[in-house]
Design goal:
Elements: H1 3-16, H2 23-33, H3 51-55, H4 66-81, H5 87-106, H6 133-149, H7 152-186, E1 193-198, E2 205-212, E3 215-222, E4 229-231, E5 235-237, H8 241-244, H9 253-264, E6 269-271, E7 278-281, E8 295-298, E9 309-312, H10 318-328
Antiparallel strand pairs: 1-2, 2-3, 3-4, 3-5, 6-7, 7-8, 8-9
Helix pairs in contact: 1-2, 1-5, 1-6, 1-7, 2-5, 4-5, 6-7
Length: 335
């Protein structure tokens, strides 16, 4: 999730087990320790555009790296806090704070390499959006109150709410998944793969993407009290390298980059319907019914020895915002 929420969760967890004397130090250490795992975003360079997203939420977020990351943070903080708290205490609170990073990111749809180096799978439970103000605000209030009044109990209440919110996300995820399968069945589609994910900043409106045959279908599902509401979306043809690029040398730089993009996209790759020679990750779009991508790669078949270029696309038009709000509120879409 976003760095602020990561820090708040780490701070709240450390504060929740601290005594009153160390409450503020514990909160500060836990907050600080929850942040450095995202330093992996700095890995990369212009020579290899995919390297950055390939290593984001990678080994620094794995379970096995938690003690190492916490040790690094604790060693730095000890230089600043050694006159106020011993190294053992600093490391304990740093361990709690750092340990929240990978677990919280695994709750999102982007996922993280929790089991590296034993598995290269990106674990993504898709039960909360990357940014969720309700979740963040609850942790913020809990941490502020706990820090101000040195009350670990406030942090525990905040953590209880956060845990209940994630359970709600799990419930909504299962509801959306069942609804997406029902929608595919109504269309007479045999589903090979399917995923659902919450849209930005809420647990009500979900994006569903499934593969049937050689096509992907994207739809929006509003999961609310009573019956759910469907908003049918677009579809796109699945990209198959051997079929679509038969003349591309398999050992070329471009071919390897396409394979890497396949892994990063969990094989949900399609040609961009609106742009020539662009492959997209169809799991993500600014609008849950759209197949207009949030990112993709340019493929220059005339230069197979060159790396593919990673592209980010954003549609912030007023029409897009109006449609999103309408779906979120369960209304008919504007023209």
């Amino acid at each position: 999730m976003d760095p602020l929420t990561q820090g708040l969760l780490g701070g709240a967890l450390a504060l929740s087990v601290a005594n009153k004397k160390e409450a503020r130090l514990a909160a500060a250490i836990g907050f600080t320790a929850a942040l450095p795992a995202d330093a992996d975003i700095l890995i990369g360079g212009s020579h290899d555009p995919l390297l950055n997203i390939e290593f984001h939420r990678h080994f620094t977020h794995s379970l096995i790296f938690i003690p190492i990351g916490a040790l690094i943070v604790a060693s730095i903080l000890w230089l600043l806090l050694r006159k106020r708290i011993g190294f053992k205490g600093i490391y304990f609170y740093a361990l709690l704070g750092y340990g929240t990073s990978g677990m919280l990111d695994a709750c999102t749809s982007y996922g993280t390499h929790l089991l590296w180096p034993f598995s290269d799978e990106r674990i993504a439970w898709s039960i909360i959006a990357i940014i969720d103000p309700v979740f963040t605000l609850a942790l913020l209030i809990a941490l502020i109150l706990g820090f101000k009044y040195c009350k670990p109990g406030s942090a525990r209440i905040g953590l209880a709410f956060a845990g209940a919110y994630l359970l709600l996300g799990l419930w909504q995820h299962q509801n959306a998944l069942e609804s997406a399968r029902e929608l595919a069945a109504q269309r007479g589609h045999e589903v090979q793969r399917i995923l659902v994910k919450p849209t930005l900043a809420n647990l009500i409106l979900w994006r569903a993407v499934y593969q049937s045959g050689d096509r992907f279908y994207a739809d929006a599902i509003r999961v609310g009290p009573g019956s759910n509401r469907f908003y049918p979306g677009g579809s796109a043809r699945m990209f198959v390298p051997a079929r679509d690029l038969p003349d591309l040398p398999r050992d070329s730089v471009l071919a390897r980059d396409i394979e890497r993009f396949y892994r990063l996209s969990n094989d949900f790759v399609a040609p961009d319907p609106g742009r020539d020679k662009v492959l997209i990750d169809i799991r993500y779009s600014m609008l849950p019914t759209s197949i207009t991508p949030m990112w993709g790669i340019d493929i220059d078949l005339a230069s197979p020895t060159q790396h593919a270029r990673f592209r980010i696309y954003r549609d912030r038009s007023e029409n897009m915002r109006q449609k999103f709000v309408a779906m979120l509120l369960g209304r008919d879409l504007p023209e």
